[in-house]
Amino acid sequence: MPVSTYLGSQLVDLCSVLLLLCCFAIVAQRRLSACVDLFALQSAFLAATAALVAFLTGHRHIYFAAALTIVIKVIVLPRILRKVIERLNVSRELGMNVNIPAGLLICGVLVIVAFFITQPIIPLGYLLTRDSLAIALAIILIGFFTMIARQKAITQMVGFLVMENGVFLGATAAAYGMPLIVELGVFFDVLVAGLIVGIYTHRLQDAFDSVDTSTLTVLKE
Amino acid sequence: MWSVIVLLTGPVVAGLLSLVIHRARVLHVVNFLTMLALAVAETALTRQVLAEGSVTTLGALVYVDALSDFILVIITAIGLSCSLYMWSYMDDQVARGVIAPKRLGLFFFLFHMFLFAMVAATMANSLGVQWVALEGTTLATTFLIAFFRKRESLEAGWKYLILCSVGIALALFGVVLTYYSSVRVLGDASSALNMTALIGVANQLDPNVLKLAFIFILVGYGTKVGLVPMHTWLPDAYSEAPAPIAAMLAGVLETVAVYTVLRSKAIVDQALPPEFTGNLLLTFGLLSFVVAALFILLQHNYKRLFAYSSIEHMGLAMIGFGVGGLVGTFGGLFHLLNHALAKALAFFVAGNIHRRFDTLEIDGVRGLARSQPITAMAILVAGCALVGLPPFSPFVSELLVVSAIAAQDFASDTMHVGRFVTMTISDEMRSLGIVTLFLFFGVVLFGGFMYRIGAMVWGTPPAGIAQGEPWTVGHVPVIAMIVALLGLGFVLPEPIRTLLTRAVNVVLVR
Questions:
Q1: ipTM of the assembly?
Q2: Which positions ≥6 away from B490 have C-beta within 8 Å?
């Protein structure tokens, strides 16, 4: 393996691990605004990873995806979410379905599970980004777990966006990015989802005096 | 070519027009004319597909073959009848003060965006674009479900948004994995997610990656289909959505979601033995069928009753696709059409009852036969069709699925689910064990369903309920669907049969 490839691969791994660390930080964080900031930080690392892969491989269209990530996931979506938090009367998550230490332990297990699942398919990948696929799956699973463990509408949305970041890292790592039209569509969907959640929190606040989804218990068997 | 463009641009244009039009009558006319145009375009497209086999156009972005065309037939047929039903339903809701008159335009805008997303998901050549469009359906419908802005409907809309978004994020990872395997073989990055390209090289793709990809896709899109255990959003959403939207969700959106699963199945089956996808579909299908049958016994809300019946029918179709073969796949596809008709009829009827009785509780509804004779007849037809009684068409497709199961050799090592279910039964009976299970829960379902519907139809209406049912434009689709359910039970018209047979060949890649 040439030295440059080795170094590049190490750098990509480093960036992916920083994304994963952000996930753990989100799981350990009670303050809603800090969760949003951490998501913005994670997206910035994601953009850095994508730009790094684009630089090392010479695939120009990944630069484009990195730029879109910065605009939408680092600037626009966190701004929308912060506005929503400002308007609401809550800043901390008090009730959680799983407490923080247990949550962190579960996330550790999820990382092991992710590496275990992707073991048979990793050797097929490109040399440069091989191990990022496992990390991507770990991020998706942790995002999924965040959505289950938290009760506030905002943190559930952050969990969804973290999952999306994981999928995006997976696409960059596994196949050097998706076709352009697909990437554009995904960004559009994520942006609209963010706007819709903004409107929803507003209406939930009006109707239930709370954005705590544990109050949504009218409908059941 | 022109038909494809009409199908794609029609809903967008109509949706944008709805935002600027303020008169209710004009809105309805625009809506109806759009659906009529879509139906005409779809007829033309069907002729073209039947003549040429498949249509690829707009720079290979659009790919329509017999399977996607069959789904488009369902979308346009149910959409057209919905537009007629909405005419009387929405006007009535405005007159009763449930909806502010100026919000009607927003309703039609969202409705047409929903329609556009479904048409795009069905026509997309790229699996990635298909994903984008399917997520689009979630975003467009969540406010339609919460349109009445009650606490319950907000809750249902929120649950739907979150659960389906999570599911579909998992499916996106499945799509990424498919891309991961195909881009190595195809090399060309821009077309490596196109179905036209994938199906040709599917047998060279890496089986391990595809296995993982299919599991993610099935769980993800299965959430939108409403397969157990990812179904929890479904009864809430269907019971809180306005009746025509519930009809579209149950009749059409589920069908489109099944279609996306079938597309992946067709590709994965080339690289792996078909038992892999077959076992997964059969497991989820049987689980959905059994769980839904049990939950139907507990229901006190007629819209939830129909919602669980949707889960059950999707389970049934999945069993058909899981068993596979010519008969199973044909039965499954035909069942999608029959279910769409019967379920749309059921939700139209539910809308009529709700407007008259002002309750969703089954106990609050009595003497339908006296107060609303046409609706009473329609709910009996819908009920009989949904439990699979002859002479209605779901009976035919269910019979096909059951015979496909009976003919399947579950004793072989490959059908693990069959072995598991029939472990305790003697070897000779093994292939019939799963049929017994299926029929037993079919009977459970029949009892639970007909008991509830009978309770609503007969008896004396509560005091203060108006008697008699004047004809409205909303009755036209109800009658049309009764005729269609009866007619398809006796004869399968030639074009539909050809389309179905070819669609079966697309699923089985023959």
A1: 0.93
A2: B391
